[in-house]
Write a structure and sequence with these properties.
The structure is a homodimer. In chain A, helix 11 packs antiparallel against helix 13. In chain A, a hairpin with a 7-residue loop joins strand 1 and strand 2. Chain A has two domains: 311 residues, Aminopeptidase, CATH 3.40.630; 119 residues, Alpha-Beta Plaits, CATH 3.30.70. Chain A is built from 14 helices and 18 strands. Chain A is 34% helix and 19% strand. Chain A is globular and about 80 Å long. By secondary structure, chain A is α+β, with helices and mostly antiparallel strands. In chain A, strands 1-2-6-3-7-17 form a six-stranded mixed beta sheet, with helices on both faces. Chains A and B meet through strand 9, strand 10, helix 6, helix 8 and helix 9 of A and strand 9, strand 10, helix 6, helix 8 and helix 9 of B. Strand 11 of chain A pairs antiparallel with strand 11 of chain B, so a sheet runs across the interface.
């Protein structure tokens, strides 16, 4: 496989590029401890955006990153807390080169909740380094990824002998991503003066395997809601009243039970209306991505695969919309048995969307579905998490995409960079809409990093690769130039 | 309506009986405060048998009642703690009359859990008297009922001038009833030497309304289980894995969704095989019990009725078996949203049974149903609460039944005592099997006492009525005699 970075460079540039690769790697290797020390500090701040009692910690996490950006050399650093969103961080480092492209890097500093806490082998907020593996909530998603950028820009300066980056670098670090970015559109609107750029780099994704570099080219969107069923106004004795009044726990289970048919198709009215089906060519490309159902099951620690009939695992994750139960509750939860008819029950549902599905249409379809499955005597309430997130697709072969894969390849000694799709959702669609420029994904989480689960971890060597790739990317984007970067 | 107590008494006995009614009432009225003071002490002990951390309190509750029985005058009082059961109390007061019948009174000293605690208007273990209403966990179910017996036997002695009761009185007060009496059969087996009697009086039930005395003539049985579904061995990110692995929360909801058909019929294999259908005559009798669906909905604080098609509310509760969800849980339970595929989910199910249904057959049917509804990749576990409780039916018109209704009527100034059926389950079937004698129900809970729910309360005047009825009952049973009491 040829060294793909060379596609944008002539023969005389090749030697210079190789020198840069060595210089970048040397700088990163010489400053590994700084990244680890910084990460250790940041990971101790439990900034869980989904839990209001942790919002002071979310702010501390923002303040910490703002300081770190200042220490790195960013001349402009602001904590953005002038709206309903949790504090975000904006940092800017202008290139001294006239006409240099502008790059907006997106990431987030908030983290997922940590329950069930008893399944963690180490304290989630006491980072523990075990060989090449660092364990802590947020180690991979997304603090580790963001910190490689701080090291990366310094490596870029050191390797090129520059005092400002070859591109104008903007960092936008959100504090609500793990809560579904409910105010991200507001934040983008309020700070649209800061968003001018030629390309967006999203750093909140992963690669296929430690030795298989890849980049995400599609992400699913999402809508999420808590459906609450209220039955009798008090918990009732199931002997005295059982069999004669509506039971909201039974009713909500029946509603969830009707959510899929026996072929795994979601039964929300109109759910598949706008889905663009995979073409035969796309299905062939999907089939080329190295993927092994047995390995997937091992990483998922699942005893079986399960999903929409007629699709492969990668298709189910990357190209098909879903309905999942994220939580369900109601009635007696403790030891032993309490023979009540509960007064209340809830289910937390999320729906992953694919390109062209409109969150607003899905929301109204789910509202209708819940209404149709609410029996007499049950009061239903559907609380949506914001207005949802659209799916996002990155076209292959654009100059921005080529520069990205070249930079990643350089960090991986010339290995081929594969395009993948990810099943997750983020605020990418909003970023794409607000900026109007191409968007690429640079991130090095691993499938088994257990993000969102107990015992989250990150592969430390991949963070160093991330710093290298970022350093190469700024030089690569500068070589491409602003106009070409905007090509779609 | 004639004074039904007179059915067992000739004209000359009538005057004596009326004097007894007055004497019993006077004694009870003079000792009301003692009952209230005792109840206040006992209700402060949070003896929740379903919660292992409360088992020390269950023992304290047993010790307290043992002391109270001794203070009342019972010469033999034992705390039974020589087996796997939580401590029970046995008390015995032999009649000095040769050939006096022996009566075994059953009740329980343990109480239901109190969650959700935030729905209580007062502390569940700080009894609060508000006019005629006393609020606390256990006030009605079953501590208040048991304490009227202690006052009742004293009223019986005072009104008849006796130094020992006219019947040999045995009290058996269990400590695990609210957990489904898992070891009650063991307890009965271990202490069968204490169970010799001519009639059993169960004191753990209610009446139709404060001014409508009634007695239970049927109780449903029950089996209960926690079904646990285990999916992937860790919580997974629903973006990364959603749509491709089995979700135990979705799966358990689908299983519960299949539990009833659209007509409210339980879909467990063989569920209705042994049910004795109501005869037309029985349905006519049921229809005579004063019952008002609107009032039932008001007491249940429910906006609708819901149940098996083709049956009235009373039939659904008294004569039809059910399947109810008592609790369901899995995945994220907190504020906001966590986009996980949970590793685990559970549902707590109970099945009310009617006469002739065999708990063992229902248990195996449910096991089969769960197996048939466990998808690939899900590991199911069904944990049964003991071996279940058979339903129980009291034949009308026997001497024991007539003496019971006479005694209740006497406490209610001669009002007619209606036969009812209750939907609840208790250890009656085991008692009936262990003793081989007729069983009757004496209890004064009200439908709106909110037993098993927040804000449990008891009507204090009904406890005084209970003491009166008990006092009359011992005289009445003595008048009937041991041989006639055993008639079925």
């Amino acid at each position: 496989m040829p060294f793909t970075a060379l596609r944008v460079a002539g023969p005389s540039q090749r030697r210079r590029y190789r020198r840069t690769v060595t210089s970048v790697r040397d700088f990163v290797n010489d400053h590994r401890q700084r990244l680890l020390d910084d990460l250790d500090q940041w990971l101790r701040i439990p900034g869980i955006s989904a839990q209001p009692e942790r919002h002071a910690d979310v702010r501390r996490g923002a303040d910490w990153f703002a300081d770190a950006a200042r220490r790195t050399g960013f001349p402009v650093v602001e904590v953005l807390d002038d709206g309903p969103w949790l504090p975000a961080v904006y940092a800017e480092w202008r290139s001294e080169d006239a006409g240099a492209p502008t790059v907006l890097v997106y990431g987030h500093h908030d983290v997922q909740p940590v329950d069930p806490l008893d399944l963690w082998h180490t304290d989630p907020f006491s980072p523990t380094l075990d060989g090449d593996v660092l364990r802590a909530r947020g180690a991979s998603d997304d603090k580790g990824q963001l910190l490689f950028h701080l090291l990366g820009v310094q490596a870029h300066l050191a390797a090129t002998g520059r005092s400002t980056p070859a591109v104008t670098l903007k960092l936008l670090v959100e504090g609500e991503e793990e809560s579904g970015s409910p105010h991200f559109a507001d934040l983008l609107e309020a700070h649209k003066d800061k968003l001018g750029c030629d390309v967006v780099v999203v750093t909140d994704t992963g690669i296929v395997a430690p030795d298989v570099p890849s980049t995400v080219t599609g992400m699913r969107g999402m809508v999420a809601a808590t459906v609450h069923f209220h039955g009798p106004d008090l918990d009732l004795h199931s002997g005295v009243f059982g069999g004669a009044v509506p039971n909201p726990a039974t009713a909500i289970a029946r509603m969830v039970g009707a959510l899929h048919d026996d072929r795994g198709r979601v039964q929300v009215p109109g759910f598949y209306d706008d889905v663009v089906e995979l073409t035969d060519t796309e299905r062939e490309l999907f089939a080329k991505v190295p993927s092994d159902d047995a390995e997937f099951m091992k990483v998922a620690q699942s005893r079986a695969l399960h999903g929409e009939n007629g699709f492969t695992t990668l298709e189910r994750i990357g190209a098909r919309p879903t309905a999942e139960v994220n939580g369900i509750g109601g009635g007696y939860q403790g030891d032993g048995h309490k023979t009540v008819i509960p007064s209340d029950a809830f289910v937390k549902l999320s729906f992953r969307l694919v390109a062209n599905q409109d969150p607003a249409k899905i929301i109204s379809g789910v509202d209708r579905f819940v209404g149709e499955h609410t029996p007499d005597g049950i009061v239903a309430d559907v609380a949506w998490e914001g207005s949802g997130v659209k799916a996002c697709l990155v076209p292959l072969g654009t100059p921005a995409y080529e520069a990205l894969t070249d930079a990643i390849s350089a960090a991986f000694d010339g290995a081929q960079v594969l395009p993948t799709r990810e099943g997750g959702s983020g605020p990418e669609a909003a970023l794409q809409e607000a900026t109007g420029v191409p968007l690429v994904f640079l991130g090095f989480m691993l499938p088994d990093d257990q993000i969102h689960a107990p015992n989250e971890k990150v592969s430390v060597p991949l963070l160093y690769k991330g710093a290298e790739a970022a350093a190469h990317l700024w030089a690569g984007f500068a070589a491409v130039g602003a106009t070409a970067l905007r090509e779609r």
